[in-house]
Amino acid sequence: MNVRRSAAVLAAVGVLAAAAPAMAAGPSPSVKAAIPSGLYGTSDPTYDGVWRQSLTLIAQRTLGYEPAAKAVDWLAGQQCTNGAFAAFRADPAKACDSKVMVDTNSTAAAVQALKATGGHDDAVGKAVTWLKSVQNKDGGWAYYPGKASDTNSTSVVVGALTATGADPAKVTKEGKSPYDLLAAMSLPCDQDGGGALAYQPDKKGKPAANADATAAGVLGALGKGFVARAGKAPADAACAKAAHPTAAQVADNAGAYLAAAVGKTGHLQSTLAGAKPQPDYGNTADTVVALAADGRTEPAKKAYDWLEKNAGPWAKQSGPAAYAQLILAAHAIGAQPGDFGGTSLVRSLNELGPAPRMDSAGHETGKAEKSDGGSKFGLWWFVGVCLVAGIGIGFLFSGRKKRRP
């Protein structure tokens, strides 16, 4: 996940541009929304405010922190009366109307965050009800309601359903569940990119392998969300043929594809059209979570080791969602987020917004690292028991702001 699934981001931006051409061609890029005091990060939140806040709160809870009340309140205050969330609402006191572009990704991420922080059951319930109301007849979800289903959006909604205790297999539309959509997006083993998932079929109806969607799809097929730990090793190391793959088989085949993709270099490459291939830090972090959840710990650790050596500058530039993504990758393999190549991911994230406080209730904490996060020796708060019931599609999204209309 690029700090958000790049395919979903581009699709969303395309919809925004089509819906509001004046905005796409309009205000100067220098015009930015004001940063609310409860929101993490200093970059323009127009396209990722709810997303980055949600990932931040989830990462903090996973580490054993109680997020600041003003940070949680800001997120809860972004909700529309129908239960949905948009990417960002500069004036949450103003009622949502048809001009407010609510979407499934922001809504599903907020569900997982508010469920993790607790105390917002009504908001969570309304959001889930809205998500169910916009499910497509193929069992999946689109970024924006009414559009074609995609792997990334379907997977993040699966994470929201699981976080609230719902069984995704029982959330259906015309007899189809999200697992049916994910299976339909899975490429047969004997095709190019076999085992991978497509984001969406192309205009001719042909699916193509997409590593971003594949990482999301692994977690979606496993019924997990942003937070995941090492699972049971798959029955087959390679892609296993199946005429009608089960959700578990979809996940295992996708895991085999990802393991091969990071096998040589330890990382994924970006594939944005027209751009020179570059290391894809965000999707590599998502892949760590996906591989760990699928029980492929060795390739997951290899990818994490590469991130630890190379991803620090990217995270510093990208902001809170990137730090949260790396924390969730560390959590997935049992690594130390307080010592990430000599930098504390924990401190770096917490300094970008209202300070959380350590809450030992319901968490296991330990001491092993220096408080400044710069040494392997000293004190650190070890990753605790994850309160979020599965959120792993590892899909973060600080990079979206660079692809705005």
UniProtKB/TrEMBL annotation:
Signal peptide boundaries: 1-24
Keyword list, A-Z: Membrane, Signal, Transmembrane, Transmembrane helix
Record field: transmembrane: 377-397
Region (Disordered): 351-373
Gene3D superfamilies to which the protein is assigned, alphabetical: 1.50.10.20
CDD domains documented for this protein: ISOPREN_C2_like (cd00688)
Composition skew (Basic and acidic residues), residue ranges: 360-373
Domain of life the protein comes from: Bacteria
Name the UniProt record assigns to this protein: Squalene cyclase C-terminal domain-containing protein
